[in-house]
Write a structure and sequence with these properties.
The protein is α+β, with helices and mostly antiparallel strands. It has helices spanning about 25-35, 55-70, 75-80, 95-100, 120-135, and strands spanning about 40-45, 50-55, 105-110, 115-120. It has a two-stranded antiparallel ribbon. A two-stranded antiparallel sheet has the order 3-4. Helix 4 (about 95-100) packs across helix 5 (about 120-135). The protein is elongated, with a radius of gyration of 16 Å. The two termini are about 15 Å apart. The mean pLDDT is about 90.
Length: about 140
C-alpha cells in the first residue's frame, strides 16, 4: 500500500525535532547539531514556545574563538536570532517550496499558537515534491 500524497507541512514535518534552550552553551549546541546532522535548531522557552533560531553559521566563529582563547563558549541566548521565519502545519508544500527559493533558511520551525510542533527542511520539501510529481 502506498503512502498518501502529501499536501501540507503537517504531512511531512518531523514532530520529534531537536530543540534547544536559550541557556544551553554553544559548545553543547554544536555537539547536538553535529550528532543530529542539522544546520540549525529552534530555540524554545520552558513551555516549548518558539523564541529564536540558531544555526551552525551563527556559532562557528564563536566556537573557533573559544578554542583559540581556551575560554568558555557563550550561551545560545547570546547568539540566537529572535526574528524567525516559521510556518504552520497547514501551509501548502508547494507554497513553501516557492518561498524556499533563493537564500532562505534550510530549516523552518513549524508552530501552532507560538508553540513548536515540529520542523520541516528543504530536503523534506524536495522529497515531498518528488512524491507529488509521481502521483
Amino acid at each position: 500500500m502506498s503512502k498518501p500524497t502529501p499536501h501540507n507541512v503537517r504531512d511531512i514535518m518531523s514532530r520529534d525535532c531537536y530543540r534547544v534552550s536559550p541557556e544551553m552553551s554553544i559548545t553543547t549546541l554544536a555537539q547536538g547539531l553535529a550528532l543530529h546532522r542539522l544546520p540549525g535548531a529552534p530555540v524554545v522557552d520552558r513551555h516549548d514556545n518558539l523564541i529564536g533560531f540558531i544555526s551552525e553559521q551563527d556559532v562557528l566563529g564563536r566556537v573557533l574563538d573559544s578554542v583559540y582563547h581556551d575560554d568558555e563558549a557563550p550561551l545560545v541566548k547570546e547568539l540566537m536570532r529572535n526574528e524567525v521565519l516559521s510556518v504552520t502545519p497547514a501551509k501548502s508544500i508547494t507554497d513553501l517550496a516557492q518561498e524556499m527559493l533563493g537564500a532562505k533558511p534550510k530549516i523552518y520551525p513549524v508552530v501552532e499558537q507560538r508553540r513548536l510542533v515540529g520542523i520541516v527542511t528543504r530536503r523534506d520539501i524536495l522529497v515531498a515534491l518528488l512524491t507529488i510529481r509521481r502521483h
